[in-house]
């Protein structure tokens, strides 16, 4: 932040995607099938794009569901790391595979109403944007694809815990 009378610091220039960048399947996945290529709020668009894909495997038994999420996390470390390396940027805002996995964690209670899905979305975005401890620390200290993925995984876990707490403590009181 600048003091009164000082020149404001210039914003970091946006990284322009090279032509044909999303034709590469690795980059296409890391950019959430293109949802992260938006000019504004790519993380929010990526989080929204994760919801329809979640419906594809939400019906699985819990063990199957969490194995899919774990596989997406492990693959995501490589996808995000490779895409960041190709762009020569640590964590390009358009890389949203981490938002996909974070959302799938937040949706892990299998909300069966639109309110549950909206609650998971809102809480995940809150934690992902605000980055409370330990998210902010992990985001700054873990390198490569792991660093890109872990902060969103923790945001998803925090959202899941909040949803669980509401389900356990608030819903029975209201019924």
From TrEMBL:
Coiled coil: none annotated. Its main location: membrane. It is found in: Cell inner membrane. It is a multi-pass membrane protein. Pfam families: PgpA (PF04608). GO terms for cellular component: plasma membrane. GO terms for molecular function: metal ion binding; phosphatidylglycerophosphatase activity. The chain crosses the membrane at residues 63-80, 101-124, 144-171. The keyword Oxidoreductase does not apply. Lipid phosphatase which dephosphorylates phosphatidylglycerophosphate (PGP) to phosphatidylglycerol (PG). This is Phosphatidylglycerophosphatase A. It comes from Marinobacter salsuginis.
């Amino acid at each position: 932040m600048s003091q009164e009378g000082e020149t404001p610091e210039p914003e970091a220039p946006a990284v322009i995607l090279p032509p044909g960048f999303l034709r590469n399947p690795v980059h296409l996945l890391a950019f959430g099938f293109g949802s992260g290529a938006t000019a504004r709020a790519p993380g929010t668009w990526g989080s929204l794009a994760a919801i329809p894909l979640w419906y594809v495997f939400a019906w699985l038994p819990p063990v199957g569901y969490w194995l899919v999420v774990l596989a997406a996390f492990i693959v995501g470390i490589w996808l995000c790391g490779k895409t960041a390396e190709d762009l020569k940027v640590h964590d390009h805002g358009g890389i949203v595979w981490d938002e996909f996995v974070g959302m799938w964690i937040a949706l892990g209670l299998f909300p069966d109403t639109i309110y549950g899905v909206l609650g998971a979305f809102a809480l995940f975005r809150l934690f992902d944007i605000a980055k409370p401890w330990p998210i902010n620390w992990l985001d700054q200290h873990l390198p490569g694809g792991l660093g890109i993925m872990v902060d969103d995984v923790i945001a998803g876990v925090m959202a899941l815990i909040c949803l669980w707490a509401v389900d356990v403590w608030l819903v029975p009181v209201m019924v």
